[in-house]
Amino acid sequence: xxxxxxxxxxxxxxxxxxxxxxxxxxxxxxxxxxxxxxxxxxxxxxxxxxxxxxxxxxxxxxxxxxxxxxxxxxxxxxxxxxxxxxxxxxxxxxxxxxxxxxxxxx
Length: 106
Ligand SMILES: [Zn+2]
Ligand SMILES: [Zn+2]
Known about the structure:
This protein is an all-beta fold. Helices cover 0% and strands 26% of the residues. The protein has a 4-stranded antiparallel β-sheet, with no helix packed on it. The protein has a 4-stranded antiparallel β-sheet with strand order 5-6-7-8, with no helix packed on it. A hairpin with a 4-residue loop joins strand 2 and strand 3 (35-37). One zinc ion binds next to loops.
């Protein structure tokens, strides 16, 4: 074995805040977002609140509706909902976005 060669580096991060996830044996946790993820990080399943009784943060984005024109002149609009992370999270707020082109959801 050549110990000068590199070993693989496995890093699993939160898809929102990009913090490295903590594996406590039953699953992966993002402490900054207060979210617990599936034990199989390759499942692609969304996480759940670490504290099931926590309520959503609910912070409202400064720019809730952003309207603009695409290069071809079609009107487009991004609507941002209030933050869905549990209250007390330390990561940036997560505002789900809906994107519309010419009045239809894109
Ligand atoms: Zn996170
Ligand atoms: Zn928030």
